[in-house]
Amino acid sequence: MNENWQEIIKKAMDSGLASSKGAVPGAKLRQIIAHIAPSYGEQYPPMGHESEKFRVFLGHFVSLVTVFSRDGQDILVAPSDRPELLGASETGQAQLREDMFEAFTRIPRESPPMEPWYDRNADKIKWQTADEAAVSHDFSKIPPATLAQELEDRREFAHSLEIDSQIKDNLLGIPQNQSGLWTFTKILKENGLSHKWHFFRFRALIMRIRSWCESENIEWREDWLRSGNAPPNSGKPLSIPDLIDKQHRFEGFLQGLNDEDVKRISVPLDIVLKLLRK
Q1: Phi then psi for 214, rounded to 5 degrees?
Q2: Which of 112, 113, 228, 265 to pair with 13, CA 20 to 30 A apart?
Q3: What is the CA radius of gyration of the chain?
Q4: CA geometry: angle at 107 spanning 106 and 112, to 5°?
C-alpha cells in the first residue's frame, strides 16, 4: 500500500475515535475510509482488493492498527499504540491469549530456569531451559519476565494516576520483592483501581509484544487477542491443577483474573486452613 493509504488509515482512525466509545467498530471505520479515500485520489476498496474482507485489508497496516475479531460480531479497531481502547468497548473486553500472556508475565523460578520460546510455524509457546533450547530459525526466544520489570510496571501505573496522594504513596511504597505484587493487588482492590490496572497492563504487554515482534521479525497476529467475555473451552471445567501445572505459577493465574472471576473461585475450608498455618 502506498503512502496515501497510510494517511487515509490514520485520518480515518482519528475521525472514528472522535465519535466512538473505545475502539472503532469495523463497519464504521470502513465507511469513514470509503468517504476519505477520494480526497487522496484513491477509492475503497482499492483495485486488486475488491474481494478482500475488510479485516484482511486492515492486515496491511499492522504498524498502524490493532484489529480485534469477535465471533458473530463486528471487528473492533484501535491504533497500534492505544490497544487499551479494545477493552473500553461495551460489547466485550480484549485479552491476550493465555499462553502469550503467560510467556510475557511468568517469572521463571526453576533451576535451571524454564524460559519461553515461540514456535513460528505452529504459533505456540514452548518452555525449555537454555540447554534444551532448539537452535533453529523456527524458534524465537521471548525475554522472560522479571520481578524488576513487574515492579517497574506497577510504579509507572502509580505515577500515571490522578488519585489521592495517600493511595499513590501506598502503591509506590509496596515492598520491592515478590510480596510487593500481592500488596499492590490488595491496594488496587481496596480502592477500586483494578479495572484501570487491567487497561494499563494490557497496553504495556501489547507494546512489549509488538517491540519483540519487530526485533525478531515476527508478524503481529490478530488471534493473539480473544474476548474477555468468551466462555472457557467446552468440556468439563478445568481444575486448579489443570490451570497451575509445573510451568504456571499460581500468582500469574490469579493476576490474569478480574474481580468478578475471583468471586467465582471456591476453595475448600481444609485448604484455607492449610494456607493459614503456613
Answers
A1: -65, -45
A2: 228
A3: 21
A4: 120
DSSP string of 146-200, one letter each residue: -HHHHHHHHHHHHHH----HHHHHHHHTS-SSHHHHHHHHHHHHHTT-HHHHHHH
pLDDT for 262: 58
**Core vs surface per residue 228-259: b (16+ CB within 10 A) or e:** beeeeeeeeeeeeeeebeeebbebbeebbeee
What's the one-letter identity of residue 100? M
Say how far apart CA 114 and CA 184 lie, in whole Å: 26
Beta bridge mates, 1: none
pLDDT in tens, 112-138: 889 999 999 999 999 988 777 656 678
Q: pTM, whole model, 2 decimals?
A: 0.74
- Contact (Cβ atoms closer than 8 angstroms) between residue 124 and residue 163: no
CA angle 149, 155, 161 (to 5 degrees): 140
Q: Are 185 and 252 in contact (CB under 8 A)?
A: no
Take residue 269 and report the three cell numbers written for it.
475450608
Q: What is the DSSP string of 25-43?
A: EHHHHHHHHHHHGGGGT--
Q: Give the whole-angstrom CA distance, residue 3 versus residue 122.
A: 33
Q: Which amino acid is at 82?
A: R
